[in-house]
Design brief:
The chain starts with 10 loop residues before the first strand and ends with a helix. The protein is built from ten helices and three strands. By secondary structure, the protein is mainly α. The protein has one domain: Up-down Bundle (Rhopdopsin 7-helix transmembrane proteins).
């Protein structure tokens, strides 16, 4: 049992990168550049998909939503982190902390579920191409995306309520650069065993279901691709999945590390480093992966640039 002290906390101190005082100016520049590239990259992907009629397919509809989620997720964390890097002492109220945690968990869950939906989309496209337009109708795609946002909202409400049902006493220094679940669990002066079980169980269930969908989809996809006789056909099929698979590996590697594996196994310093990758780098890298490794997007981008230069 943790020590209980009846002095309740009304605000938290965000330690952020205060232990790296000599590097804070450099970190500010790096994070700012990452954030600008994230916004520009994801807006570019959304814009290209919207204006190019050849990209009006379910795959790119889901990619548009993924880019939107990446913009929102990065915006929920990075601007505040940038401001904190310029302040000697950064504080955040309980309400502000709860709001930040709510949006972050909701958006992270949405990204996780969208990657599962995109894997199913690739399965139908490659393994049942003749039924693709019948199965992946516009109505069904919209229903899938709405389902993603509903599940994300409910999960975030449960997780945020679970964390802020704990008691916070004298300790109020968050050893992180934003309000996240692992550091908040460490600050509580009440018994957090059940709270940790709820966190790991909910995260584990969502991640497990999505990973099963992705793994099964890709097993069937790879089997179908290997049966294609022409090397050109196999290459084209693989290329349509390469971008998504790269994003899946990057996203779930960090997600499992932070939220599914018990936090006691790793130091908060390591969690903080991985969180930078998770909250800042991945949203920036995703549009690069989908633009550099996707011929359709590259062609659409080329057309936009050619049209712009001709004007």
């Amino acid at each position: 049992m943790k020590n209980t002290n009846q002095t309740s906390v009304t605000e938290f101190i965000i330690l952020g990168f205060s232990d790296l005082s000599k590097l804070q100016s450099l970190l500010f520049i790096v994070f700012l550049v990452i954030y600008i590239l994230t916004i520009l990259g994801n807006i570019s992907i959304i814009t290209i998909i919207r204006i190019d009629p050849h990209l009006q397919t379910p795959m790119y509809y889901f990619l548009t939503n993924l880019s939107f989620v990446d913009i929102c997720c990065s915006s929920a964390i990075t601007p505040r982190a940038l401001v904190d890097l310029k302040e000697e002492k950064s504080t955040i109220s309980l309400l502000e902390c709860a709001i930040q945690l709510y949006f972050f968990v909701a958006l992270a869950t949405a990204e996780c579920l969208l990657l599962g939906v995109m894997a199913y989309d690739r399965y139908v496209a490659i393994c049942n191409p003749l039924l693709y337009t019948v199965v992946m109708t516009r109505k069904f795609c919209i229903q899938l995306v709405i389902g993603v946002y509903i599940v994300s909202t409910v999960n975030s409400l449960i997780q945020t309520s679970n964390i802020f049902s704990m008691t916070f006493c004298e300790l109020n220094e968050i050893n992180h650069f934003y309000c996240d679940i692992p550091p908040l669990l460490k600050l509580s002066c009440s018994d957090t065993f059940l709270n940790e079980i709820v966190v790991s169980t909910l995260a584990g269930i969502i991640v497990f279901i999505v990973i099963i969908v992705i793994v099964v989809s890709y097993i069937v996809i790879i089997s179908a691709i290997l049966r294609i006789r022409s090397s050109e056909g196999r290459h084209k099929a693989f290329s349509t999945c390469a971008s998504h698979f790269s994003t899946v590996i990057l996203f779930f590697g960090t997600l499992i590390f932070i939220y599914v594996i018990p936090s006691s196994h790793f130091s908060m310093y390591i969690n903080r480093v991985v969180s930078v990758v998770y909250t800042m780098v991945i949203p920036m890298v995703n549009p690069m992966i989908y633009s550099l490794r996707n011929n359709d997007v590259k062609q659409a981008l080329r057309k936009v640039l050619e049209k712009k230069w001709s004007c």
